[in-house]
Amino acid sequence: MAAITSREELADVVASVEVERQAAARESGNAAACIVALRKLQELQTHEKEALTAHGPSAVHSANLATLGAEIGRVQRLAGTTNRLSVPNKARPDQGNGAHRAATRAPVRNRGRKTMGRGGR
Q: What is the pTM of this model?
């Protein structure tokens, strides 16, 4: 895949990835569609980073990286929303910080020495 040389090209590619994501979301669910879209966007981001290092600092590549970063964040939020809604926030009532859980336990008692198999001698 060649580096994208203009913002219009990037807009077209991002739009096509979004259309594909929406179509895949209708077929296989939002989470799977977001994973595929993220993979494509991250691949584009990698190519843009390589182009930036190969050709030196460029306003176009820097702007493309910023746009791709924003789009990746948007798709990650979409995927995160799906994942959070499918799993309840509190799966178990005893989840949380360990202080509450430790407060309900009885204190540890010192039981003295044990006779490790000597039969009480």
A: 0.61
